[in-house]
Amino acid sequence: MQTKLVKENGRRDVLDARTVGTLRSEKPGLRSAYRLSAIIAVLMVVASVAGLLIDGLYTDGAWAREALRGGDLTTLAVAVPVLIGSLLLARRGSHAAEAVWLGVLAYAVYNYGYFAFGATFNDIFVLHIALLSLSIITLVLAVVNVDFEAIAARFRAIQGTRWVAGFLAVVGAGLGAIWVFLAIRFAITGELLADVPTDGIHLVFAIDTSLLVPALVMAGVLLWRRTTGGFVFAPTMVVMGAIYQVNLLLAGLFQANGDVPGVKAFPPEGIFLAAGFAVATAVMFVPRGGR
Fold first, then answer.
1. Global pTM?
2. Does residue 1 surpass a pLDDT of 70?
């Protein structure tokens, strides 16, 4: 009988060749999630190219317009290749790739939330709505159909997961504390952030405090406790966070090049967070010798 070797994090698994080809296709829900992911990848390319190349597509103010274009470049150059690669490897039986796949889908939900609810009505509004809806549906289908125990087993033996857990929880709690402080200060003094449109800040606060902050903290706490869910959600949030840090850095670069007041390309805090997520990604996914 033909066999296939799959090497993950220094560990070699021997899988039946037919099992590798069919293991992930046994659940109809997972099959549907794979197909929807391929559609999402295509729509991401179309939306991103349109946002980058069509002059005047985004009619928002300079701060939001350049941030959206930075997001389009990140999606096209980073998210789409990672989505396609992880999808192909997940279908071949890689549990690490499944976590990456979930992370890109989480990024898509978060990212297109801004495009759907934050951007001024534009010619590809329907495309952005389709991407948000499909990303939510696909992420739900994926989460309820993947094998949590198998994914968790891929990450349990990794050294340094406590550091990753602490990093995710601290980043989430810190971000939430900053946004809540600024919101309370605004309620008392009417002062928010200089040079940033109030409507843009409102959406950032709303999405981050309701979705991103709880997800980061929950993933960190569950991983710290070494639960099965922690070993699934933490690598998912590491991937999501790493891609979005690239998004924020490129958004800042676009804004700085567009002479948006008060914005600097590659601010120290952005570089620090991006480096933190890069290290966390390396800890969780890069094979190390001796195991």
1. 0.88
2. no
